[in-house]
Amino acid sequence: MIPKEVLQQIRRIQITTSRMVSDVFAGHYQSVFKGQGMEFEEVREYQPGDDIRAIDWNVTARTGTPFIKKYMEERELTIMLLLDMSRSTYFGSVNKLKRHLAAELCSLLAMSAIKNNDKVGLIAFTDRIEKFIPPRKGLRHVLRIIREALYYEPEGKGTDISGALEYLNRVTNRSTVSFILSDFYDAAYKKPLSVAGRRHDIVALSITDPREGSLPDIGIINLEDPETGRDFLLDASNHTVQRNYRSNFLRMNDERQQLFRSVNIDHIDVRTDVPYAQSLYKFFRTREGRI
Fold first, then answer.
1. 3-state SS, residue 286
2. pTM exceeds 0.90
3. Is residue 189 classed as helix, strand or coil in its secondary structure?
């Protein structure tokens, strides 16, 4: 039985994100993602003016006559949401936890998908695959995704992005538009991300909280790594400690952005203290300019 407050939260997120889709994002979503893929339709004889790069050399060799491959635009897309549920996402110092922000983003993207008659599915992960909802259409299906994003209690604590990407490739038999919603506190996922990026259109949404980049000046504090359970004392009022803490955060952020650029993956920075509509709108406008 789902608690009443969770049902209310699901309803609130549904109303908020459906309004945003109708008012702002539907047109951008459609122009950025619709028709980006091409699906094989048939072969036909080559005609003067056809692109020679489309020649099907196997058929041409068998028949002795030039044939080309004909493609059609894929009108129906499959959207996959890869949702990080590791313990580090259960943190937020401003408006909401990173996990709750990720759930709202899942809702917004899922609502955009069904408005354009696309399928949408969910892979929730920690250091293991926690939940898989196969892609389908319809509002009822989207409400299930929102419910699981908010309410599901994972067993794992850590983060395994490589495992989530490998699972994505196993459970999909065609190209998808896949969004990774995570704080990306993981290492050694560059190769799996590169491999998945060659098959799927992947967009990384990195979710951060301002307190992850600066310490409060409150003296000695006890910190705990939520994914490993290791705890330690820290003098938050020490200027050297503050500087090193900030420097480490900026270094990790730069390395993450460089990694995404190196494998040609689109990236959106989302913060708990900044309305995410701004970040998404900027991404859509930038990507539209590249089409």
1. helix
2. no
3. coil
In this predicted model, which residue has the larger pLDDT, 115 or 206?
A: 206
264 φ/ψ sector (left φ>0, alpha ψ -120 to 50, else beta) = left
Are residue 205 and residue 253 in the same domain, yes or no?
Answer: yes
Q: Which helix (H) or strand (E) holds 178?
A: strand 177-182
What do you get for the CA distance between the two ends of the chain, in Å? 46
pLDDT score at 122: 98
CA distances from 72 to 19, 76, 80, 116, 140 (A): 32, 12, 22, 18, 30
| Dist CA 120 CA 109 (whole Å) | 9
Same domain? For 54 and 107 the reply is: no
What are the tokens at 82?
Answer: 């890869």
Instruction: Identify the domain containing residue 125 by its residue range.
Output: 4-34+76-290
Q: How far is CA 255 from the centre of its chain?
A: 18
* Pair 131, 236 in one domain: yes
Instruction: Judge if 158 and 180 occupy the same domain.
Output: yes
**Is residue 192 pLDDT above 90, yes or no?**
yes
109: left (phi over 0), alpha (psi -120 to 50) or beta: alpha
CB 80 within 8 A of CB 61: no
Report residue 224 as tokens. 């705990």
Q: Are 178 and 124 found together in one domain? A: yes
d(CA 66, CA 112): 42
Question: Tell me: the pLDDT tens digits for 126-169?
Answer: 999 999 999 999 989 999 999 999 889 999 999 999 999 999 99
The span from the CA of 106 to the CA of 83, in Å, is 8
154 and 46 fall within a common domain? no
Q: What is the CATH number of the domain that holds 272?
A: 3.40.50.410
- pLDDT tens digit string along 37-80? 555 557 888 888 777 777 888 888 988 899 887 764 456 789 99
pLDDT of amino acid 47: 82
